[in-house]
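User: I've been trying to design a sequence by hand for this structure and keep getting stuck. Would you show me what you'd pick, starting by listing the structure so we're on the same page?

Assistant: Good idea, let's start from the same input. This is the structure you sent:
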């Protein structure tokens, strides 16, 4: 692999057999530290039929299933494919940010009680179930309405829907394409956090870089308290992915697609198999939107019990793992494409009709979580991202160590003590969870953000730091 830095923070290479080049967005430091397996996976993606422009990797890129995590690829509607490996198992894993009218000095005396109550009121952990149990009929309705289902049930505010990607509901979800096993797993998990890198954080605004745009987003001063939620479609989405990876392996063989890796199992976009997967995937996307909406309702309830006149407003909610149809300019022509973002965030620039009215003149909010011991960032989409990455950027810090490796290296109890000495209150279902998610298991979030800024695909607006963390 002979990559060249074609401009600051952008590396590119092409090998025989690739339909498009691989393009990696990273600082020199992160580029040279990236696993060789990431390069190989990006090369394999570049060999898929109908791929347009480039196989892209964001600076948080690391080894995944099929596509690298941090991978972006768009496919032509006539010649292209859809691949579950380009979406991932946790369909619409995503993140949302809430601002409050509270300052850290108001919250600090009640912080432990707040985190304890959030941990109790929002179930977290592997297989954890919700107090909100759905019938199959209710689950089908939820899959069709997304976050709107929760709002209809009084579990959210109507204005929330304007501040969610796809308005909280992607169209053409088809519950008839979802297996009974997926539905059974989904019935009892709405409003739950899950495990792994999923979290709920109480934060404070640490630094504002662009006061004008930050103000548009409701971030008004340093020391302001915010809340961030990171989770997805739980067992429902995982089962949808598992079901359709098997279908896609058969489909690839049926349509004569030569797979460079079976984990890139796919089907032509105009095939029945692709339509079935997309119908089921959209159900999981809407499930995740609704899941984060119900969690938001419980966060608001928890704050209301502790703080008088607390106001929590949704800044934005963005997807990380999704494939969807979007219009983008390619070689001077506006084209409809199937854009896969796996561990990557949409980052649309000002003017796009998909952006809420409140933000359309400045660009889409981009929310990039770090790890529980460092910082997270609020950014905004840019024109460069629209021109180069189909309006995409990174989604987080990105792992540099497996969960198993982190458990071997770190002690969860030690991590909790360290965080507590730094003024961060932590609750987790088990110390191993903290070991898995130790800061040392992740890339440096500041360097990741520097990468998207020097390459021009996002602009930093504000930085927030954790003061309270709840993890599954």
């Amino acid at each position: 692999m002979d990559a060249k830095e074609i401009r600051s923070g952008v590396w590119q290479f092409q090998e025989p057999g690739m339909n498009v080049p691989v393009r990696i967005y990273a600082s020199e430091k992160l580029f040279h530290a990236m696993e060789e397996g990431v390069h190989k996976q990006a090369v394999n993606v570049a060999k898929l039929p109908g791929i347009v422009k480039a196989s892209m990797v964001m600076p948080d890129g690391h080894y995944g299933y099929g596509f690298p995590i941090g991978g972006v690829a768009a496919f032509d509607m006539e010649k292209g494919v859809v691949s579950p490996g380009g979406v991932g198992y946790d369909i619409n894993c995503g993140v949302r940010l809430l601002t409050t009218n509270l300052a850290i000095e108001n919250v600090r005396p009640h912080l432990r009680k707040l985190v304890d109550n959030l941990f109790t009121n929002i179930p977290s952990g592997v297989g954890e179930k919700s107090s909100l149990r759905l019938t199959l009929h209710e689950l089908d309705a939820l899959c069709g309405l997304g976050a709107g289902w929760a709002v209809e049930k009084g579990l959210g505010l109507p204005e929330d829907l304007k501040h969610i990607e796809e308005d909280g509901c992607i169209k053409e979800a088809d519950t008839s394409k979802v297996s009974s096993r997926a539905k059974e797993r989904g019935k009892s998990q709405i409003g739950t956090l899950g495990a792994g890198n999923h979290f709920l954080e109480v934060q404070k605004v640490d630094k504002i870089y662009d006061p004008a745009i930050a103000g548009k987003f409701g971030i008004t001063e340093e020391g302001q308290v915010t809340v961030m939620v990171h989770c997805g479609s739980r067992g429902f989405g995982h089962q949808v992915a598992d079901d359709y990876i098997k279908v896609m392996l058969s489909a690839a063989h049926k349509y004569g697609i030569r797979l460079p890796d079976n984990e890139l199992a796919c089907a032509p976009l105009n095939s029945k198999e692709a339509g079935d997967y997309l119908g089921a995937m959209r159900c999981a996307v809407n499930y995740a939107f609704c899941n984060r909406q119900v969690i938001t309702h419980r966060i608001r309830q928890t704050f209301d019990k502790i703080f008088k006149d607390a106001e929590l407003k949704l800044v934005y909610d963005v997807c990380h793992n999704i494939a969807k149809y979007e219009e983008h300019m390619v070689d001077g022509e506006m084209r409809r494409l199937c854009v896969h973002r796996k561990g990557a965030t949409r980052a649309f620039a000002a003017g796009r009709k998909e952006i809420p009215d409140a933000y359309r003149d400045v660009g889409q909010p981009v929310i990039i979580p770090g790890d529980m011991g460092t910082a997270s960032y609020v950014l905004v989409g840019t024109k460069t991202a629209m021109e180069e990455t189909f309006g995409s950027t990174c989604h987080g810090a990105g792992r540099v160590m497996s969960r198993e490796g982190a458990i071997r290296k770190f002690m969860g109890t030690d991590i909790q003590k360290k965080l507590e000495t730094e003024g961060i209150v932590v609750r987790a279902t088990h110390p191993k969870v903290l070991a898995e998610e130790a800061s040392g298991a992740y890339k440096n979030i500041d360097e990741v953000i520097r990468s998207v800024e020097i390459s021009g695909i996002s602009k930093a607006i504000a930085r927030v730091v954790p003061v309270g963390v709840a993890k599954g």
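That's my pick for every position. To get oriented when you compare it with your attempt: The two ends are 39 Å apart (CA to CA). Residues 272-306 form the longest helix (35 residues).
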